[in-house]
């Protein structure tokens, strides 16, 4: 008898299976009153993990006994009951498996009958017995005793079929059980964040936490989520960026500071955007946008090395992507001029930009000079970027927190990093002059009054902090979810463990 099927059960079959499993749960609970155990014991006497068993005895020759007794627990992902000898594959959380062999000679008639009656696919089971290698060379445990560790009342999906993307996203716990790539994604994300922290620590940066609930949103051009505090009887915003608080820390003397945490933006969701996402921001006193670009490249290349062993990463589809070498630095205005076949500069009349946008079929919301330039650049240049590229020197009117360029009028010292065809990070020479910053905020306020929901508001408390003196500083921000996209080739809903879904 086998407990494997090649098609998916219907809703009616799932309901029937659930009822059968609930009845087994009741029998286990009733049995526990007299014999202990039950359907959900508080603990089981594990002596080894399944990965430890495989690491220590995984190279046994076929038909070998060891005399070593272990107690392991895992989820039943394969079950075959055949007469006097039953087989099960037990899987640990990391996907490692070991075979359990339950024989009449080892456990006795009553225990074997209960195994056949009470154990289902998906159950967590504890087994103890000798580590052996089967005649076919399969690392196994010859079970002397067993116990249900947790009874599953719903059947697992068919392990031989691919889960749909919708199922993977909505029921990530199932995805983690059945799909190796899902488990790898979790590990790679943890390794990547650990690598980022190590690079920062090695360079003398301090990690801090800043507020997620803010009385005024700022630090990015984005539409916020709004909420209400009953305790303070005031409207609050979920932060769109930690920037203005991290800069306060720099004013206070934390010269090298960073934060990895959540941001929230009440905007669209697609293959590269999520309303809730993990963000890294860092600020380096006495640096500028060139030094912060060097830091960003090192962060990403170190992360690639730590998870892939080199700067060449292999995506989920098998494609290799090279993050190595010195990355290109490309002027926004010069590259746009080359691609459009005409000179475009900060002095180009907005009428010419509008005509070019109309000719290219580009709709520019809240049309100001800088937004025309950026939209035109995305249309003419962005698609041709293959290698990691820093796109340098942005229009001043779309970058209210950025220092004016030291030698080019009408632009600011800002870059966007493009990897895999999408924006991965952004970096600035930070604007630290409180007078100019106030002027920029006033211009943003006018845009907000005109209906631009992404425009920033005038933040008096931040301006007051700047008035106490902020040193020359380079700053950067990078989405952690997008970094995982660059390293794995996956979409954003795969790199976020539990993404928001409707």
From TrEMBL:
Highest taxon of source: Bacteria
UniProt record, GO biological process: lysyl-tRNA aminoacylation
Entry note: cofactor: Binds 3 Mg(2+) ions per subunit.
Class of this enzyme: ligase
Binding site residues for Mg(2+) 1: 416, 423
CC per GO annotation: cytosol
UniProt-listed PROSITE patterns: AA_TRNA_LIGASE_II
Cofactor: Mg(2+)
Presence of keyword Cytoplasm: yes
EC numbers for this chain: 6.1.1.6
Reactions the enzyme catalyzes: tRNA(Lys) + L-lysine + ATP = L-lysyl-tRNA(Lys) + AMP + diphosphate
Assigned keywords, A-Z: Aminoacyl-tRNA synthetase, ATP-binding, Cytoplasm, Ligase, Magnesium, Metal-binding, Nucleotide-binding, Protein biosynthesis
GO molecular-function terms, A-Z: ATP binding; lysine-tRNA ligase activity; magnesium ion binding; tRNA binding
Domain Aminoacyl-transfer RNA synthetases class-II family profile: 194-499
Residues annotated to bind Mg(2+) 2: 423
Compartments in which it is found: Cytoplasm
Assembly behavior: Homodimer.
Similarity remark: Belongs to the class-II aminoacyl-tRNA synthetase family.
Protein's UniProt name: Lysine--tRNA ligase
High-level lineage: Bacteria, Bacillati, Actinomycetota, Actinomycetes, Micrococcales
């Amino acid at each position: 008898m086998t407990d494997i099927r090649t098609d998916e059960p219907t809703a009616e079959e799932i309901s029937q299976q659930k009822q059968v499993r609930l009845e087994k749960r009741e029998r286990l609970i009733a049995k526990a009153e007299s014999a202990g155990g039950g359907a959900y014991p508080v603990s089981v006497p594990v002596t080894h993990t399944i990965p430890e068993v495989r690491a220590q005895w995984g190279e046994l020759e076929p038909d070998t006994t060891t005399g070593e007794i272990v107690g392991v627990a895992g989820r039943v992902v394969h079950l075959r009951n055949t007469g006097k000898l039953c087989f099960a594959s037990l899987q640990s959380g990391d996907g490692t498996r070991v075979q359990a062999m339950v024989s009449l000679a080892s456990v006795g008639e009553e225990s074997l009958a209960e195994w056949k009656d009470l154990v289902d696919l998906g159950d967590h089971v504890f087994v103890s017995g000798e580590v052996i290698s089967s005649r076919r060379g399969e690392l196994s445990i010859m079970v002397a005793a067993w116990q249900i560790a947790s009874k599953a009342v719903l059947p697992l999906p068919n392990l031989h079929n691919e889960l749909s993307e919708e199922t993977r996203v909505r029921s990530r716990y199932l995805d983690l059980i059945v799909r190796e790539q899902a488990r790898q994604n979790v590990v790679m994300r943890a390794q990547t964040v650990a690598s980022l922290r190590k690079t920062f620590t090695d360079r003398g940066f301090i990690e801090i936490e800043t507020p997620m609930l803010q009385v005024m949103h700022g630090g990015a051009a984005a539409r916020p989520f709004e909420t209400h505090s009953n305790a303070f009887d005031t409207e609050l915003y979920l932060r769109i960026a930690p920037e203005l608080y991290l800069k306060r820390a720099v004013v206070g003397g934390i010269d090298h500071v960073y934060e990895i945490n959540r941001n929230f933006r009440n905007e669209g969701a697609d293959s590269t955007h999520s309303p809730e996402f993990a963000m890294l921001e860092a600020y380096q006193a006495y640096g500028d946008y060139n030094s912060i670009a060097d830091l960003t490249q090192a962060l990403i290349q170190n992360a690639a090395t730590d998870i892939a062993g080199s700067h060449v990463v292999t995506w989920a589809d098998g494609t290799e992507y090279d993050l190595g070498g010195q990355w290109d630095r490309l002027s926004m205005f010069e590259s746009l001029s080359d691609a459009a076949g005409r000179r475009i500069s900060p002095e180009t009349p907005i009428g010419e930009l509008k005509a070019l946008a109309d000719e290219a079929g580009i709709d520019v919301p809240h049309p100001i000079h800088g937004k025309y330039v950026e939209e035109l650049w995305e249309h003419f240049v962005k698609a041709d970027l293959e290698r990691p590229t820093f796109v340098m020197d942005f229009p001043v009117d779309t970058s209210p927190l950025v220092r004016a360029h030291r030698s080019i009028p009408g632009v600011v010292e800002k870059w966007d990093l493009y990897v895999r065809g999408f924006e991965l990070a952004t970096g600035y020479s930070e604007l630290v002059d409180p007078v100019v910053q106030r002027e920029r905020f006033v211009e943003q306020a006018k845009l907000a009054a005109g209906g631009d929901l992404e425009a920033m508001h005038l933040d008096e408390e931040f301006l007051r902090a700047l008035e106490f003196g902020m040193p020359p500083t380079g700053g950067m921000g990078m989405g952690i979810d997008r970094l995982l996209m660059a390293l794995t080739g996956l979409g954003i809903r795969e790199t976020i463990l539990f993404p928001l879904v409707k």
